[in-house]
Amino acid sequence: MNRTNPFDEIEQFLGRTTLGGDRMWGRDLRTTDIDVAEYDDEFVVMADLPGYDREDIDVRATEGRLTISAERGADPEIAESEDADRRYLRRERRHESITRSVDLPGHVVDEDASATYRHGVLTVTLPKAVDEAADGHRIDVA
């Protein structure tokens, strides 16, 4: 008799991989998609964060690593007072938080980094650190 694990069938139906824990369609459920671009004098990281408020996004650059965290969801006190007056027929929206870290491909000036958030896309601009050794040391001719 061939016995199957019913949870394997559920994971297959949902499109989850059997290797990666909480992963669906090849990506972590608690993360965000990002692009990293390099320009002559800066790196630009773009992250999809639809539905988050600007105040709920935290961006940190430390020692060549950029970390983006965001959290959204109803305030528990407000949700409880609202729930007393209604009966949900379906409730899928919930508290959600994500964190994504990426190693930057070069040295940056953390203090001069900037970020903007428009239309659900976070754009972080990180100026490259000037590597004076690459140009060598100039020697004045007397």
UniProtKB/TrEMBL annotation:
Residues 25-142 form the SHSP domain. InterPro entries: A-crystallin/Hsp20_dom, HSP20-like_chaperone, Small_HSP. It comes from the Archaea. It holds the Pfam family HSP20. PROSITE patterns: SHSP (PS01031). Belongs to the small heat shock protein (HSP20) family. This is Heat-shock protein Hsp20. It comes from Halorubrum salipaludis. The lineage of its organism: Archaea, Methanobacteriati, Methanobacteriota, Stenosarchaea group, Halobacteria.
